[in-house]
Amino acid sequence: MNCPLLTIKAAASVITEGGVLAYPTEAVYGLGCDPLNKDAFQQLLQLKQRPLEKGVILIASSVSQVEPFVKLHNQAWTEKVLASWQVVNQPITWVLPATDKVPEWITGGRSTVAVRVTQHPDVMALCNQLGFPIVSTSANVSGTDPVTTLADCCHAFPGLSIMQGSLMGIASPSQIWDAQSQTRLR
Questions:
Q1: Distance CA 126, CA 137 (A)
Q2: Residue ranges of domains in the chain, CATH in brackets
Q3: pLDDT at 1
Q4: What is the pTM of this model?
Q5: Tens digit of pLDDT for each residue in 117-137?
Q6: Count of CB atoms situated within 10 Å of the CB of 20
Q7: SS3 assignment for the chain
Q8: What do you get for the CA distance between the two ends of the chain, in Å?
Q9: Closest Cα partner for 156 from 167, 145, 171, 168?
Q10: Are 39 and 156 in contact (CB under 8 A)?
């Protein structure tokens, strides 16, 4: 296998230095980068062969990390969103109104952004090390199945650094809900 396996500290360095990283999430491997680094984001899209218009998810270790990116508080749905992020083994991503801090490349040109506060201990540690959320999109070339093993991740993205850790054993990627309409999107 020709993919470097990194500690959380080394993985954080890849992100802060403008790189793209693969890492285990609750159900599948993800690709991530600094959401405010346009060059890193472009690199991620090229690896994934994904169009900009699709948008991506931001994944964080705490509510305070997502607050600069979304209009979360004082909404009819605020308590429901916050409560959902406390539930272990049921990852939920919410599409929320974006603040003007969110670059267009993250939203795909929309006025919303998808965010999740993760319960995955290694991803939480990575975001804590960084002090900010990271991009989270499934580690697969667009149109192919999400990657669920380290070997498949390395095969799909030869040479890409992968953060050590394990999937949490959740059967499918996170549910995605639109907070304003209260409808499930995935």
A1: 16
A2: 5-184 (3.90.870.10)
A3: 64
A4: 0.94
A5: 999 999 999 999 999 999 999
A6: 24
A7: CCCCEECHHHHHHHHHCCCCEEEECCCCEEEECCCCCHHHHHHHHHHHCCCHHHCCEEEECCHHHHCCCECCCCCCCHHHHHHHCCCCCCCEEEEEEECCCCCHHHHCCCCEEEEEECCCHHHHHHHHHHCCCEEEEECCCCCCCCCCCHHHHHHHCCCCCEECCCCCCCCCCCEEEECCCCEECC
A8: 33
A9: 145
A10: no
Degrees, nearest 5: CA angle 134-104-63 = 40
Token pair, residue 40, equals: 């890193």
Q: What angle do CA 38, 1, 56 make, to 5 degrees?
A: 25
The one-letter amino acid code at 86 reads: Q
Model confidence at 46: pLDDT above 80: yes
Residue with tokens 């693969």: 22
Distances in Å between the Cα of 14 and the Cα atoms of 40, 125, 128 are 10, 15, 15
Backbone angles phi, psi at 30, to 5 degrees: -120, 160
Is the model more confident about 9 or about 172? 9
Q: Are strands 29-32 and 21-24 parallel, antiparallel or unpaired?
A: antiparallel
